[in-house]
Design brief:
Elements (H helix, E strand, L loop, with lengths): L10 E5 L3 H12 L4 E5 L2 H10 L4 E7 L7 H11 L5 E5 L13 E3 L4 H13 L12 H14 L2 H10 L10
Parallel strand pairs: 1-2, 1-3, 3-4, 4-5
Helix pairs in contact: 1-4, 3-6, 5-6
């Protein structure tokens, strides 16, 4: 996806069904010059990024999402928007140990710790990190699908199909 310019991007996307995360993150993001956009599900978050990729400077994604799982959303973004800084949210310290290849805040999080992780995500160089749980075939299908359609959601569905029990068609 072309056109991602971090100097122009002023939005942060929070993909989380928990409204409390929004109220906790909003002042931290505003202090960094970012306006918060909230999506309650992975599909909605990917659709927003699909429509306006150059507007977003950061994505914060919960591991616990309805429908399309958080690790699938994170892996999709790492593969197809590799320059977009990412932070994951986990329901617990144990869940934050899930191999998602990047910083993960455990809920409930304190403002100081969250601020440090947000700053690290916004300033650290990005690398392509994808968990080993996704099959090589699923990654190949996702890449082929994205090359053909340019659609993040199509690619995410292929990644999800490579993770048994991860894909749920419900919203």
């Amino acid at each position: 996806m072309d056109g991602w310019e971090p100097t122009e991007a002023r939005l942060a996307l929070l993909v989380d069904a928990d409204r409390e995360s929004r109220s906790l993150l909003q002042p931290l993001l505003r202090a960094r010059g970012l306006d918060l956009v909230h999506a309650r599900a992975g599909v909605a978050g990917l659709e927003l990024l699909q429509r306006m990729p150059s507007r977003f400077r950061l994505a914060v994604v919960s591991l616990d999402l309805p429908g399309l799982a958080g690790p699938v959303v994170l892996q999709t973004l790492r593969l197809f928007l590799p320059s977009l800084p990412l932070v994951c949210l986990a329901e617990s310290v144990e869940a934050s140990a899930v191999p998602v290849g990047g910083p993960c805040l455990s809920k409930p999080f304190d403002a100081a710790g969250a601020a440090l992780q947000l700053d690290a995500a916004l300033t650290a160089p990005r690398t392509l990190l994808v968990g080993a749980a996704v099959s090589a075939e699923a990654l190949a299908r996702a890449t082929a699908s994205f090359k053909l359609s340019g659609n993040l959601l199509d690619a995410a569905r292929e990644i999800a199909r490579g993770l048994p029990g991860e894909w749920d068609e419900s919203p």
